[in-house]
Structures
1.
Amino acid sequence: MSQATLAIRKISGHAGPAPGEGVERDYQVCKLVDTTTCIGCKACEVACLEWNGYTFTDTVFDNSYQTMPQTAWNYWNLIKFNEHEREDSTVTLLMRKDQCMHCADPGCLAACPADGAIVQYTNGIVDFQQENCIGCGYCVSGCPFDIPKFNPATKKMFKCTLCSDRVSEGLEPACIKSCPTGCLHFGSKDDMKDLAETRADQLRENFGFEKAGVYDPAGVGGTGVIYVLHDATNPEAYGGLPKDPHIPWVVRFWKGPAKWIGNLAMLGGILGVTLHYLRYGPKEVHPPKNENGGQP
Amino acid sequence: MSTAQVVSSGRTAGETDGRICRYTLGERVHHWLGAFTYVYCLITGLAFWSPYMFWLAVLVGGGPTARFWHPWFGLAFAFSMFWMFKMWHRDMRTTDADRRWSKVMKQYIENDDQNLPPVGRFNYGQKLFFWLMFYGVILLVISGLGLWFVESIPWSLRWLRYTAVTVHVVAALATIGGFIIHVYMGTAMVRGGFTSIIRGEVTTTWARTHHRLWYEQIMSGTSRKQ
């Protein structure tokens, strides 16, 4: 299999720099999801299962068309259906294809303690390497989109790979190939941004969606999956898409300053007791004074 | 529980001292169960803590194995800690003697021991360490459950995930600080302490030097029976 587009840029839990650190390829790959033309057919859900070799699992009915409440370790691609009341009190169905967002600044990768369990390729794809995963679940805490899921049988984490195996061969992801309305697009980040902005303009000017816009959150450095939304000011309405996602500050602190403070404190403790021994040495025992008896 | 007594009068060759039972077999067993499980959690925890210490996981069977056992060893440590609480919590209460002693702890640290106020079975520092580990393990178990079953914490309560991480890290670092001092004092600084937690016995001179009030209780036969 060609690995040409899968050179690594970032590595989780890695002591020292990654080969390819800081490298920007000519283009970052990007998936564009136009929620305004999604019909909720779930062809992408099926294509995802087929390509990645999973069988269809039990659905969970929750008074909506949604297959299950959230993505699962073996169900990486889920259309989220949300009834939304318009200002004129009519109701519309907002449908958003939920999957890993492939953040430029991935919280899962920042939180991961296992060397090489999460990598970011130079084309921007964030991929879990299950052979290095220890199943700790730190990525769950790091992800601002609640995407990584645990397989209790193998004790490994799973999520959408953006079909890195297909992309490395010059193919588009399976979900893109299956979409009947063309609401899914795949290409370079620049091209997808252009296309998304064009579509948002169209929605604003021709269709009366004054708040239409593109979702490409800067808090995580931009994402490898971007959305066109009818109302970009209220992404939460699309099944809880966070308005301003970023790596939780706790995770940033934990993996940044806390590490150095903690390591220095531990080192200081060891140094401190060593110096104490050199300066003061062991304690003497005092034999009892004779006049006071002492010996039993 | 504290069945301290004079074990022998120590008149055998080379010994000028009698010996006193300081720790019963049960106390020693639980100390070492706690020590072993804590060190396991320390090694694996440090591996998860920093990429520069991830190699430590190799010592105990690799990352996934370490991740699997860490919480179970943590529970075993908590068990031993609660057992130690059961055995020692009466001995670990702060007394007036401790308050007097704690005021001149600097002298103790500098080995200027001649004029220290006498203390009972455990000194104030030992008591602090005990309560640090006791409350530490409570926090570690509660936050550890949050890390263990992180996916069971719903997204709407995700602040609990972040709190669990923070509490686990802070509590672990605090216990590591206590652990470093404890191991140093028990092995290098206070000679006789290490053998006492292995074989259970100390010399009368040792007891008289380090734990005068306890020594006097034993000698006068007024040691508290439980």
2.
Amino acid sequence: MKRAFSIFSVITAVLLVYGLYQALVGAPTERTMGDVQRIFYYHVPSAWTAFCLFLTNLVASIIYLIRKSAWADALAVAAAEVGVVFCTIVLITGPIWARPVWGIWWTWDVRLTTTLVLWLIYVSYLVLRRFSDTAQTPILAAVLAIFGALDVPLVYFSIWFFRTQHPQPVMGRGGSLDPRMLHAFLINLLAFSCFGAMVCWARFRLEQLKRDVDQAHAMESLAGASEPAKASLPLSRSSR
Amino acid sequence: MNSFWDLMLATLVKDIRLEWRSKDALNSMLFFSLLVVVIFSFSFDPNAEESRQIAGGLVWVAFLFASVVALNQTWARELRNQVLDAYRVSPAPANALFLAKALGNFIFVILLEAVMTPLFIVFYNLRALGPAWQLIPVGVLGTWALVVNGTFFAALSLRTRSREIMLPLLLFPISIPAIQGMVEATRILLAGDGSARFWIVLLLTYDVVFTTACLGLFGTILHAE
Amino acid sequence: MNALAFLFAAYIATWVIHAFYLGTLVRRFSKLRQQMKELGKGK
């Protein structure tokens, strides 16, 4: 398992480096936006990876609610945390791209706003996990994930309608993609997907290690607690 | 089926009676609502046209904060008297308890809104240019949207540290589409700027989806172990 | 070339955030392994 992870990491690193080269050098400069458009090769793959991770969290949460498997809960935590990291990057690269191109930092664009709401929901998910450290926490968090999933289509739909009433600048790439641009985009999409999966796997292993340590701690304190109990037995039992 | 409604009504009536006898929470909430309206009036002093555009947002943000204060004490009495533990071991349907709590909160918050609304109308010189009667379904659906999720997340927050801050932290992100619906619908109806139909349908959809989710999952979080 | 500054800001921000997060993972891993070792010795 460890060897497979190492090989996968190397492949991912190679893909990322190649993707970086393609994004900055290989792909041609866009006509209307100029070189700033290259942020697109990082912004959209990050968004894709974040959404995949949040979807993983939702599926893991549902599996946990049905089967109560510990691994499902560990995966849910991992996917949520790594998803928030990628989502943060989407929300930072988005405005950095928008400012020079459209002159504004933010717009209530459907995709960007939905991303913001997803980020808020999953940050609240992580806060719930941090502020609740009981045996019920996994169930509570899984329920929150389901509520979040129900919310997202409503968010998307309501902002979409709001936009038809209040037209705002559209943030997007516009026009068709040159084949070299498509190549750069797809390479970065693959690279970041692999990178996201890799980091999520690492976080998952970390969570499992944490649970093993917690369990070992508990066993040790149980073993320690039984010592004085044995010592007091002769006093309470006349049979010895 | 009979016992479900009986249990729900009994719990609801008991809560209202207890609240009415003490009037503690009611009085402090009413005063709090008045303070919120006054502070907002000092902070935002728009002219008549601007008022109609922003009043929707102001009013609903004020209601939202007032609701959170009300929602935070939803389960306080139950916690003090170990009622929730009793529910966990009894065969009584958990949803009857949830529905009673949600309806109790709903009545409470509607009461607050009924007090705050005339004050807003006075302070902001509001006059609806659109069909004002539509503000009633907006108010009812919007309030239910906040209260149903709020009551659920209040129960969810019971087993967390910093319970009082956990509730709004969980409630606000999930409520965003509902808040957008309430604010936009109110703005449209006050400014006479087209039809609020889409937003009312959105609020109705939100209410149906989340009432179902709350009823479906309340048992899970009550019996979580 | 002000626009290029934005381009590099975005790429650098991306990798700084990823490096920071991976750093926290490494730190948490080593802390847990340390605890595991101590528990093993205690037994």
3.
Amino acid sequence: MAETVDVAVVGGGAAGLAAAISAKEVGANRVVLLDRNSELGGILPQCIHTGFGVHYFGENLTGPEYISRFISKAEELGIEFKLDTMVLRINSGRRLLASSSLEGLFELDARAVVLAMGCRERTRGAVEIPGTRPAGIFTAGTAQRLMDIEGYMPGRKVVVLGSGDVGLIMARRLSMEGADVVAVVEVMPHPGGLPRNVVQCLEDFGIPLLLRHAVTAIHGQERVSGVTVAEVGDGGIPVTGSEREVLCDTLVLSVGLIPENELSEGAGVALDPATGGPLVDERMHTSVEGVFACGNVVHVHDLVDHVTETGARAGQGATLFALNELPPPKRRIAVVPGSGIRYVVPQVISGDGPVTLFLRVKSPVRNANLTFGDFAVPLRVARPAEIVAVKLNEEKVETLAHRREIPVCLEASS
Amino acid sequence: MRTEVAIIGAGVVGTTIARELSRYEVDVTVVAGEVDVAFGSPTKANSGIVHAGYDDEPGTARAKHCSRGNELWHKVAPEVGAPFKETGSLVVAFTEGEVEILWELRRRGEKNGVPGLEVVDDEALLRRIEPRLSDKVIAALRAPTAAVTSPYELAIAMMENAMKNGAKALFGAEVRGITVRDGGVGELQTSRGDVEVTYVINAGGLRADEISAMVGLDCFTIRPRRGEYYVLDKKQGEVTRHVVFPTPSQISKGIVVAPTVEGNVLMGPNAQDIDDKEDTATTATGLREAFEGAVKLFPMLADGKRFVIANFSGLRPEPNTKDFVIGSSDEVRGFVNAAGMRSPGLTAAPSVALEIVGLLRGLGLALRPRLDFNPFRKPMDRPMREMARCEAQALIQRNRRYGHVVCRCEHVTEGEILDAVQRGASTIDGIKFRTRAGMGRCQGGFCTPHVLRILASQLKIPVEEVTKKGGGSAVLTCRVKEMLRRGGLDG
């Protein structure tokens, strides 16, 4: 017989912890949080740099500091943790199948489920870097874990491919620990990470950033012996003759994150191809009744503070659903990305608001307008690396209420 | 050390010969330069297709051993608990000219003794048996006995079973020379010392020509023919049911789209003759060729790039003789070649092994059957992937570590990783080939730190000494702060 709980939260990172805490605070009786790792906190325990909590706490914290506040809170509230526990399947009836050393295979019936599995890193195969397959190729997050949790250096002479935030942070981290970071290579004409990270991680450490460059081959039989770096022209095609060999023993890849939705798909949750995550409304309710989602499983966030916020909303929604108190949707307005916009989350507005829309632009813009059908919001500056948050108050939602669809577009301001 | 029969090479050919010889009371040692079974390119990066046997000209060794090998694997793979799935294969034709070739292949296959071949030219039927096939395909040769396996698991299983029956392994021992004394083989000089031998079987894959030349038999050369592949996510597993080939060309069977035995999709290989026997690098051109070839067969794969989880390339040991080089030598007593094992080498292996054993008998090796020979090998327990729930539950109750999932993509448990170490894995790749930990969509991003820790503790070595694949392939460099203490880049 499967046990029944009010809210089951899958994933114990920033999103899952926030969801579990808010579930308890809103009045859920039994909240169980399952995580495949042996420690809570998701990726944050290995993010030992600062930059967390500026919005949420008004303080500049390290990852472990930020998340420990939530872990303590969750412990105080009596949330049940099942660690070292892998959720293998969730069915559309919200029954979880999980496994752990302690309990073996077991089932759990949840009145509501919160999906908070986070994301995984894109790999060498996904970006198709030709060459050999020696030791010494790491994704940035793995390199970070090896250094900052396990306590080992992944290499001595390093090339970082991709200038996303994790890549920039790792370039600095490796450099601080005595490794020679030869270069950070970025295929786009602009850096992938936040401007403050470009300054603090590369410029302050004298690490060259090669924009419009790519790693076109990996060399070495047993261990990486070098990479070929080339300039790229339009469409990301390497410029012939621009190739040069760079000696290194390690290649760190920071080439994107992918929301990890295998469990969601198994539960029948509809995904947005633009985000790779579930389609949600502002309550973080997915297409499957009683299944909510939050944090990086929905889309890849730039700031953990936002992740926490979506977690809190998902936890609240899930609890109300579990207690049979979630108001039915009042409307169903689809929010769709228009020109210049890569995606918008939530994809559906179902209530009166206020609603915070998170969106990403396709390329850097300055002094533009974001249009929402009936009104426009000025956008001074935006980069693909940063999420733009736009809050629609009740009044704005009311003006949109007659629509079935709001295209969100980027327009040059007049 | 001394051994009666040394088999050089721990690929699928060498290990299959070892397993066949282990039926007898013979002192057999598999000697290989790599630190584990199947670490050489022809096996590791094999497509894992067990061909039906219609490709090769009747009368060649390839033709003889391919169809018989296919039949033998149907029995042997299950005995040793290696994954094996009879998917059948299709050779597809886009033009009337190609249809003619299908009929020719069918005739050839029948001469080779391949059962069940049929040319399907009813397009409606074709769509029914392979729904996502290009609508430009007008006919296909269907071979029901073609199958897929996992090449490295197959070799690992054969070696384990051979060792259970008394065979020995000497790995990490690169053969540097062979002494010929009084017209017969004397000793192998290896990087781990000399081995006194009576018989040497050369299953040296890419280096088989060099090994043969060590005893003065330089009658053939091996040139690597590189092939590059894509592996797609299991989410694309529905693309194809059969192993699907285009109509073959002179130099290769063409770029294939095949289901893997684990449910992924394999696309490739192209065929490029190169000179360097170690050049397993993939190339932008080769990958493009593999991708375009696959899209031609299944146009829906044009959208398949987002499902790519890995690329790799393998080197086929292409002999200048075009055919397998199998035989003993009158000039050097006790030296037997099982060389030039190009495609369909994997398929042919068990049949070649029988021939090799016959040759050894002819050379005077006493073959007394081993009375306690056990043909069966207990496969690894894979509770999350292969067991019914109650069975998995019982296993976890016996050993709690089978409840702890370490590789989240492929659902590999700690119990499986420990079992793999017990069975001989000593590297990250050794664990990967035995368990699939690190073979899924995150490619080891999450499980590598755990596997490193488990290997270090089981092998009782520092974590920094754990390698990806032996030799100088250590994964980690040193402890954090050590580099700073020693002033940065000193070495």
